[in-house]
Amino acid sequence: MGSIKQWSWVLLIGLLLGGLAWWMAHKPFPPKPQADQTYRASSKNLLPWPNLPPLLRSEGLLLGESLTEGAYTLSLTNLGYLAPISLVGAEAETTLYLPVNPGLEAEALDLLLAALPEARGVLEVLAAERPLLQAPLPAKTLRVPLKGVPAENGFLTLTLRIRFPAEDLCAAQRLYRLRLLPESRLHLSGRPTPPKTLAEFFPPYLERVVLYLPDPPPPEAAQATLWLAGFLARTYPGRVPELDLEPYPPRWPPASPFTRYVVWLEEIGAQVQGFALLLGDLAEAARLFLAQPGLREAPFPGEATQTLTLKAPEELGPRVSLAQLGHGPKRVEGYGTLTAAYTFALADLGPGHLPLGLRLRAVHSPVEPKRGYAELLLNGVAFYTAPLEGTVLDLYTPLPSRLLERNNTLEVRFHYAPPEGQCTYGALPFTATLDPGSYLVLGRGELLSGLDAFPQALLPQFWVYLEPLDRFKLQLAARLVQALQETTRTPLRPEVASDPHPRPLLALGGPDLPQTLKAPLRTPGFRLVDGAGTLWLEVNPGAPYAALQAFASEGGPVLLLSHTSQDGRLLAPFLQEALREGWFGLHGDLVLGGPEGPVVSLALRESDLRVQPLPENPPSLLARYRREVYLGLGLLALLLLVWFYPKVVRRGKA
């Protein structure tokens, strides 16, 4: 009897093992965690729409009631003056445009100065030709009182003039330098007042915009987010506010005078409540964020002084004036070398266009023959000179395509020597006014390649595909749109795509997306070798990395940000490091970065480097043949059952 019980237990265990083996062999493999699962917000933090408006109406922050009288200090770096402002020569001047938000008043401006050499001179600061300060130089710091100086259209306009005593003004042009450092500080006071209308929602100075939306965001919210990112870059050039995407908060954060809040709410149009904008309609978002920016750094009058007649047959093509590129009349005055500079991006010229020639017109003071000449430089390289005679400079010249870059600087230099070397005070200076109606003649040509082709390659409209569409990927896409928009005056028009097929395309995704788009770099592991077979870089398949690639796929340009990790967490620090200098600092056609170490930029098209994919690390035998092992165990359990069953029955009968 005891043996029967013993074999019954063996039979039961065999049945259990066989069933377990069959279940393990047929159960599906667990899916890999995706980025949307990793970054999905908890539903307990989401405030339902019916409860949100009472919360908004009850919060003093959004009504502006929690902001009190205060003092605020902003550096010139905060205001968009990232580099020192140089005043050159014995006499020079520059203009500062300082934003002042509603409810605030300028108190003072602390100037930090650096002079070379430290010569004796005078600095004068004026507002609307009203003297505010006259101070002797040299000086390291100066305080300009601004109490009571009115701001117009949200900006305080100050003119800084310097004068150094010099016997030879031509030599002084090369000798004297006074630099206004970006660490100079503007002091404000008052109580920021909340906007009353949609047009007043974005103030002259803004540091941060917080956008509250669900995760995953609906396509309409994602579309509005990308439009908002481009709008901020166009409206605040050189000082783009930080755009943060966050879940709906259980309570509102403390008030901040230089922060605005945008709340995406379905079934609502657009309305302002204090410092918050409630938005839920895509048509309203388009009306707000696709309009031309209403804030100007430096308004200028007029389009052109006169209509220019053609000087060469090449001028018959399309054209864009210097005024359309944002440059008003420029005037230079002095002795020696005088420079007027114009900046423009290829994207400012429209899709597929390159500048083929320049028509330039300037009116200047009378110049005797052989006393001066004009010189044109593109990105620091001289390509044209012409003598100055009479009172008008009017020329047409081709632009060398080899000198073109994504962002360009065109310099017009006037070299002038006074008669008999009379470069002293009292002698008539040379003056010239460049016509803003001067223009670039456009045409077709070989466009730039790689990352340098963007953002021009995305015009007039491009698509944004996120895999998956979640708040994390949308935050990265918005940052890319901002960086691209910072380089051009042409408004970018991103549109959310449901698949990766439209072109031009900005795509963000995981390990499978490069394979789908047939990107140059599409494998987890690879080698970079040159034509001689020399190994330059090797990335093992098990080492995750992030990559930003620019290439052509299926007949259109693609800008791809991808990763080979499980959840994509390394994309955020990678993009932050890659855009440390904005889009201006990116060149080549491939940018790589891992969890640690520097970000590397590579120009594969311009070198003989090529990508060699590495095979993925083979899995262990148990992992590779797991299904077969479980099936074998199940079969063995059944064989044991068949073999033991007759013996159990015979012993039971005995």
Can you walk through the features of this model?
This protein has twelve helices and 35 strands. With 654 residues, it is of the alpha+beta class. Strand 31 and strand 32 form a beta hairpin. Helix 6 packs parallel to helix 7. It starts with a helix and ends with a helix. 34% of the residues are buried. About 7% of the residues have low confidence.
Q: What proportion of the residues form beta strands (DSSP E)?
A: 25-35%
Q: Regions with pLDDT < 50 over 5+ consecutive residues?
A: 25-51, 53-61, 294-305
Query: Structural class of the secondary structure composition?
Result: alpha+beta
Number of domains: 4
In DSSP terms (H or I, runs of 4 or more residues), the helix count works out at 12
Q: How many β-strands, per DSSP?
A: 35
Q: What does the radius of gyration come to?
A: 33 Å
Helix content: 10-25%
Mean pLDDT: 85
- Give me the side-by-side strand order of the main sheet: 27-26-28-32-31-33-34
Q: Tell me the distance between the termini.
A: 10 Å
Shape: globular
Largest sheet: 7 strands, mixed
